[in-house]
TrEMBL record, chain A:
The protein's annotated pathway: Cell wall biogenesis; lipoteichoic acid biosynthesis
Post-translational modification: 4'-phosphopantetheine is transferred from CoA to a specific serine of apo-DCP.
Functional summary from the UniProt entry: Carrier protein involved in the D-alanylation of lipoteichoic acid (LTA). The loading of thioester-linked D-alanine onto DltC is catalyzed by D-alanine--D-alanyl carrier protein ligase DltA. The DltC-carried D-alanyl group is further transferred to cell membrane phosphatidylglycerol (PG) by forming an ester bond, probably catalyzed by DltD. D-alanylation of LTA plays an important role in modulating the properties of the cell wall in Gram-positive bacteria, influencing the net charge of the cell wall.
Keyword Cell wall biogenesis/degradation: yes
Gene: dltC
Family of the protein in this entry: Belongs to the DltC family.
Highest taxon of source: Bacteria
Modification type O-(pantetheine 4'-phosphoryl)serine: residues: 37
Cell compartment(s), UniProt: Cytoplasm
Chief place where the protein resides: cytoplasm
Organism: Agrilactobacillus yilanensis
Carrier domain ranges (all copies): 2-79
Protein's name according to its UniProt entry: D-alanyl carrier protein
Annotated InterPro entries: ACP-like_sf, DltC, PP-bd_ACP
Automatic annotation (TrEMBL), chain B:
Membrane topology: Multi-pass membrane protein
NCBIfam families xref list: LTA_dltB
Protein name, per record: Teichoic acid D-alanyltransferase
Signal in keyword set: no
Gene behind the chain: dltB
Family: Belongs to the membrane-bound acyltransferase family.
Length: 79, 408
């Protein structure tokens, strides 16, 4: 489980280019502008490639994926 | 026969109130009278599409039958035991679902005098809903087709003429549920509040800017415009502000009625406007302006386009893909508004501003010490965004067409 968490946080840090992700995993990715639609699509593709989690665009609801912690929870629930 | 335009006159609200009473009373006893809700919706559809609008009513019936068959067929195809999911069938389903809208939208190009006989009030918004359903069926998120629920969703009359655009899975969650009395009282209070704000926006502020102010400033701007080639004058700036305010208050007011009436019926239709003029950049603006439409374009066009381009490695540069995505999105949005030069320029203008904003954000990330982030810079960015948006609405208004080419 910890492995998933680490991978997700790593992907998010790479995509946003921000240290905030690991320092503050409850930060709102969309309200802060860290992640936009382009970033979201890249996130979904990375999840597919690295963790074999198949999340279609329809699955993506910004409120459910709003923070790094929520993304981790979502990915864990889909594995 | 009485024919009513949705939310346009006091009579419509009077009938609404009478029709809503049994629903409100039922909900207070934690009951939904499904047959009454259906009858109520049906009566209002008749009121909107009868008499002089009968042609539109018949078009609506034909359209509904077509989309029912199409969606039913596609859901059936996708839920076959062998798990069929061909891209060609999906593309065909999407093309067929938008075909009626495309015909209606392009008829004026060939025959400007007569609107298409297939057209009716709200065809765009119904089409958006159906296309959303087909995409979610493709993604495996919608797994069954229930004709009654589909009709309730598609023809939900509070939002039929101009949205907000709801999503099937969200709508059905509300429709299937009967809220507790406490929860319903909360919805009722919010609903009534939204309708009241809607009155203020549409019938007072929208009326003031659109009916009292705008035509007068337009007249002055047309006269003053004669003094130079581009027709520039200070009154043109006035037209820009007055039109922008009118557009916001009129449409936000209408949307509040639709959302408010939905809430009173126990359906939490998503809101359409969230203080758009307080946005600090254009990306934020599109998260706050006509939200259900911009989210629809974001989720069903932009994100899918970008997903496809990256996955199939059509272009290497992510920046180029994002920028191309903006052009595709806003060009389609512009053409959807109508095939005139000013709607298309409006779309391209917004695509350009989005691209420049992304470039600016990247630049700022690389040079974090360039500008301080304080109250002053924040206010300046809101003021700048507001003016960029108002300028785009001046293009959108078509007034420049009148000003520049009106003499023809």
């Amino acid at each position: 489980m910890d492995n998933v968490r680490e991978t997700v946080l790593e992907i998010l840090s790479d995509l946003t280019g921000s240290d905030e992700i690991k320092a503050n995993p409850d930060i709102n990715l969309f309200e802060t502008g860290l992640l936009d639609s382009m970033g979201t699509v890249q996130l979904l593709l990375e999840l597919q490639a690295q963790l074999d989690v198949d999340a279609p665009v329809s699955e993506f609801d910004r409120t459910e994926w709003a923070t790094p912690n929520k993304v981790v929870a979502k990915v864990e629930s889909m594995q | 026969m009485i024919n009513l335009q949705p939310y346009e006159n006091p009579m419509y609200f009077g009938y609404l109130l009478i029709g809503l009473l049994p629903i409100i009373i039922g909900m207070l006893y934690e009951k939904r009278f499904r047959w009454y809700e259906t009858l109520f919706s049906f009566c209002f559809l008749v009121l909107i599409f009868d008499g002089p609008k009968l042609g539109q009513g018949i078009a609506l019936i034909g359209y509904t039958i077509f989309e029912v068959l199409l969606t039913w067929g596609y859901v059936r195809y996708r839920t076959r035991p062998k798990g069929a999911n061909k891209t060609s069938i999906f593309v065909l389903a999407v093309i067929l679902s938008i075909a009626p809208l495309v015909v209606v939208k392009f008829t004026p190009l060939f025959d400007p005098q007569h609107p298409s006989i297939f057209g009716f009030l709200g065809i765009s918004y119904l089409t958006f809903k159906v296309v959303g359903m087909i995409m979610e069926t493709r993604d495996g998120m919608i797994k069954e087709f229930n004709i009654l629920k589909f009709l309730q969703f598609l023809l939900f009359f509070p939002t039929i003429s101009s949205g907000p655009i709801d999503r099937y899975r969200r709508f059905i969650k509300d429709y299937d549920r009967v809220p507790t009395k406490e929860k319903y009282l909360e919805l009722l209070e919010k609903g009534v509040h939204y309708v009241m704000i809607g009155f203020l926006y549409k019938f007072i502020l929208g009326y003031f800017f659109g009916t009292l102010l705008l035509p007068n400033i337009e007249k002055i701007a047309l006269i003053n415009g004669h003094s130079n080639v581009l027709g520039l004058s200070w009154s043109l700036v006035g037209v820009m502000y007055a039109y922008s305010m009118y557009l916001f208050f009129d449409f936000a007011g209408y949307s509040l009625f639709a959302v408010g009436i939905s809430y009173i019926m126990g359906i939490q239709t998503p809101i359409n406007f969230n203080k758009p003029f307080a946005s600090w950049n254009i990306k934020e603006f599109w998260n706050r302006w006509h939200m259900t439409l911009s989210f629809w374009f974001r989720d069903y066009i932009y994100m899918r386009f970008v997903f496809f381009m990256i996955k199939h490695k059509v272009l290497k540069s992510r920046i180029a893909i994002a920028n191309l995505g903006y052009v595709v999105l806003f060009l389609i949005m512009g053409i959807w508004h109508g095939e005139t030069w000013y709607y298309i320029v409006y779309g391209l203008f917004h695509a350009t501003v989005m691209i420049l904003t992304d470039a600016w954000l990247r630049f700022k990330k690389k040079h974090p010490d360039l500008l301080p982030s304080n109250r002053f810079t924040k206010v300046m960015s809101v003021v700048l965004t507001f003016h960029v948006v108002c300028f785009s609405f001046l293009i959108f208004s078509g007034f420049l067409d009148k000003l520049w080419f009106g003499f023809r």
